[in-house]
From TrEMBL:
Biological processes annotated in GO: L-valine catabolic process
Catalytic reaction(s) noted: 3-hydroxy-2-methylpropanoate + NAD(+) = 2-methyl-3-oxopropanoate + NADH + H(+)
Pfam families: NAD_binding_11, NAD_binding_2
Keyword entries, A-Z: Branched-chain amino acid catabolism, NAD, Oxidoreductase
Domain 3-hydroxyisobutyrate dehydrogenase-like NAD-binding: 163-290
Any one GO molecular function term: NAD binding
Active-site residue numbers: 169
Gene: mmsB
Name of the protein this chain belongs to: 3-hydroxyisobutyrate dehydrogenase
TM stretches of this protein: none
InterPro entries hit by this protein: 3-OH-isobutyrate_DH-rel_CS (IPR002204), 6-PGluconate_DH-like_C_sf (IPR008927), 6PGD_dom2 (IPR013328), 6PGDH_NADP-bd (IPR006115), HIBADH (IPR011548), HIBADH-like_NADP-bd (IPR029154), HIBADH-related (IPR015815), NAD(P)-bd_dom_sf (IPR036291)
Pathway as given in its UniProt record: Amino-acid degradation; L-valine degradation
PANTHER family in UniProt: 3-HYDROXYISOBUTYRATE DEHYDROGENASE, MITOCHONDRIAL, 3-HYDROXYISOBUTYRATE DEHYDROGENASE-RELATED
EC number(s) from the headed UniProt entry: 1.1.1.31
Length: 294
């Protein structure tokens, strides 16, 4: 059993911290929200009063925070002062590649090995311990991170050096955003051409247009497996988070002088969907906007 600090007990972090506690670790948990702290306590973690308190005496510290600025702030203002040398830092938040590299470098300079370890899989996978982790960082840090991450996920993959986990994450989600938009368009066009949506699903899901957005996350209610579309687009992966990831991908592409016209178009469409006030809806709900609904 190891002492593990866990900072950021929101929709994702709450379930992840609970799985570390279930795995037998002594989890010192912190969040700005009292409600999140209460839930972590009920799940077997020990709530503490600050991020620094979560770091004290820990062998490893996991962060699951909204964005790069939160991670940089917690690292600089709390962890660097409170963590003992050798403590492993695992940032599982989805953040920009530049900040991920910067905080890992700063951590390493303080004798704190660090990995970026963003996840694929939503709130249900976080609770069930079936996330996929894509990890960036040195091999020895990855070797220490792997058994911890395995308690929270079904797959833990070493993507490369610092920032490589974030790079894999935003490329994956750019692909997901683009295929979701394309899947929605295909269903809407099929309907306009007089095809029954279920018939189109039956054909396309076993043809070359097949993709995860269609077969596992179909944006039309009543077609394919049960998805957020069947719950009026509630729950699932929020459109606002998809927009965040697409922005990270397009920014990273610009920084790397790479061309991502489909990613940029998906970002513009999700921005329009967000402007319509739909950031909280599941990202497959964009089919409504593409179909002409407000
Ligand atoms: P969330 O908003 O539910 O949780 C974030 C938590 O961080 C909140 O409880 C907040 O109070 C806490 N927090 C913020 N600043 C803090 C600070 N300084 N100290 C301590 N706690 C602080 O977000 P989430 O859905 O859990 O997502 C977390 C990360 O995981 C994000 O980077 C997101 O992009 C990524 N992600 C989310 C999903 C998803 O489906 N929700 C899927 C994959 C990845």
């Amino acid at each position: 059993m190891a002492r593990i600090g866990f900072i950021g007990l929101g929709n994702m972090g709450g379930g992840m911290a609970a799985n570390l506690a279930k795995g037998g670790h002594d989890v010192r948990a912190f969040d700005l929200s009292q409600d999140a702290l209460d839930k972590a306590k009920a799940a077997g973690c020990l709530p503490v009063e600050s991020a620094a308190a979560a770091a004290e005496g820990a062998e490893a510290i996991v962060t699951m925070l909204p964005a790069g600025k939160h991670v940089a702030q917690v690292y600089e203002e709390s962890l660097f002062g409170a963590a003992r040398p050798g403590t492993l830092l695992l940032d599982c938040s989805t953040i920009d590649v530049g900040t991920a590299k910067k905080v890992a470098e700063a951590a390493s300079a303080k004798g704190l090995p660090a990995v970026d370890a963003p996840v694929s899989g939503g709130i249900a996978a976080a609770a069930a311990g079936t996330l996929t982790f894509m990890v960036g960082g040195p091999a020895d840090a990855f070797a220490r991170a792997e058994p911890i991450l395995k308690l929270m996920g079904k797959a833990v993959i070493h993507a490369g050096g610092s920032g490589a986990g974030q790079a894999a994450k935003i490329c994956n989600n750019m692909l997901l955003g683009a295929t979701m938009v394309a899947t929605c368009e295909a269903f809407l066009l099929a309907k306009s051409l007089g095809l029954d949506p279920q018939t189109f699903f039956d054909i396309s899901s076993v043809s070359s247009g097949q993709c995860w957005s269609m077969t596992s996350y179909c944006p039309l209610p009543g077609v394919g497996p049960e998805t957020p579309a069947d719950r009026d687009y509630q729950g699932g992966f929020a459109a606002g988070l998809m927009l965040k990831d697409l922005k990270l991908a397009v920014q990273a592409a610009s920084d790397a002088n790479a061309s991502v016209p489909m990613g940029a178009e998906a970002m513009a469409l999700y921005q329009a969907f967000a402007n319509g006030g739909h950031t909280g809806l599941d990202f497959s709900g964009i089919i409504r906007m593409l179909g002409g609904e407000q």
